[in-house]
Amino acid sequence: MKRFSITLFLCGLLTSGFSQSISKTENIKNLLVLTGSGKLSVQVGESMIISFKKNYPNVPAEFWDNFLKEMNSDALINLIIPIYDKYYTESEIKQLTEFYQTSLGKKLISIMPLVLKESMQAGQTWGKDIGEKVYNNLKEKGFVKKE
Which of 57, 86, 88, 147 could in theory staple to 92 by disulfide, Cβ–Cβ 3.0 to 4.6 A? Predict the structure, then answer.
């Protein structure tokens, strides 16, 4: 009888932990959908494709269209859920969800694609400038043969 009670207790603990995990997973998924994380990432991917198109103008549009079809926000969300699960408690996920339902949270969601796009452009410019400075400095110091 004692073994049976212990087994029931352990099963209860496992079931309780599993249901909390499902609940947290669903809360994370809801948060990611609410914030548009999947859609935002797809937009970033689309921006990357636009950059590739500029660099490879001879590639047919069909090639790029096929890549765009493969960008699935649900697949990305499923990859992101374990990351949020690792760094946030269920309580924090709920608090974030509440924040993103406020007017400031909604504003943050609506302008984030623009902020990220402009930030990426600024980062590209910054990276290009640093790359040029490093190359020029290497050339001046004789590490790269002058052309």
Answer: 88
Distance CA 31, CA 97 (A): 5
Q: Does the CA dihedral 59-64-67-71 come out positive or negative?
A: positive
Give the pair of three-digit tokens for residue 29: 């998924």
Share of the chain above pLDDT 70, in %: 84
Question: Would you state the structure tokens that stand for residue 17, as one six-digit string?
Answer: 């932990």
Listing DSSP states for 9-67 in one string gives HHHHHHHHHHHHHHHHHHHHHHHHHHHTHHHHHHHHHHHHHHHHHHH-TTS-HHHHHHH
- Tracing tokens 């608090």 back to the chain, one arrives at 95
Please give the Cα distance from 126 to 71 (Å, whole number).
28
Give 68-114 pLDDT, tens digit per residue.
888 888 888 999 999 999 999 999 999 999 999 999 999 999 998 89
Q: Is the pLDDT of residue 16 over 50?
A: no
Q: Where are the domains of the chain?
A: 22-101, 112-147
